Amino acid sequence: MRERKAELFADDFVFLEAPRWHQDRLWVCDVFDAKLYTLDIGGKRTLVLDALPPRPNSIGFLPDGTPVIVASVQRQLMKIVDGALSMHADLSALATGDLNDFVVDDCGRIYIGNFGYDLFAGAPIAPTDLHVVELDGSVRIAARGVEFPNGSVLTDDGRTLVIAETWAGRLTAFERSPNGDLSKGRIYADLCGRQPDGICLDSAGGIWVASFNTGEVVRVLDGGEVTDRVLLGGHAVACQLGGPDGKTLFCSAYAGTMQEMQDKARRGAVFATRVDVPAAAALLRLHKR
Description:
It is a single chain. The protein has a single domain (2-287), classed as 6 Propeller (Neuraminidase). The relative contact order is 0.16. The protein is mainly beta. It has a 5-stranded mixed beta sheet, with no helix packed on it. Strands 2-25-24-23 form a 4-stranded antiparallel beta sheet, with no helix packed on it. The protein has a 4-stranded antiparallel beta sheet with strand order 3-4-5-6. The chain contains 2 helices and 25 strands.
């Protein structure tokens, strides 16, 4: 296993989720500060939107480049059009917990998880459903019985969806049909006590995984082999490959407690390191639009 060192890229945030490299910038949601930023390659930030709905914990982009952001507590997906929010899909009658991370396919389908229970009220852990949202905003169940579904990627030219099940400590893979249905769930990687949060895919099929409880970001292969590790300390939250050549790994982290996150202690930061294998080609094409 190769050890890699990350350098500070940008700090003075509360809690950053879902870094996405899009149109030559890194987009990040500050969950507990309810703000959306972009960072240029030098780390300079631009505020895109503030006063977002509570806990905007993920962002993605439709094939035409329209940003979509999670209104986690409201259990809705919102589009950003002309600098304003509008409804894309309402999952409030379907999701059993606050909405979580998501991935968008090349047709504009969104696979999105939810907590499955009231995490912040201390409710017991419960399995939940993974949902798929079509481009027209219609919603259906994609998979049942997943445990805190979190970051996700599409691999094998879109034929496989891999999702992080945080409390189960594993990545789970599903076969994906042309109409977006999922089947044949299997363990992609047992992470041996790590709690996976955000994940991203490289062009060789390796998946970078932010491990929340161990403060590291690791690269894993199908079957569970760990090839690389970046030790951040604190809590590792999410990761994204980007930069001009796709070989910069951006990692968000938090150096505080869960209570300090909710109290808006500004201990969130983005770190960066160079890697050997660039981002998956499909991701680079989509995010240049």
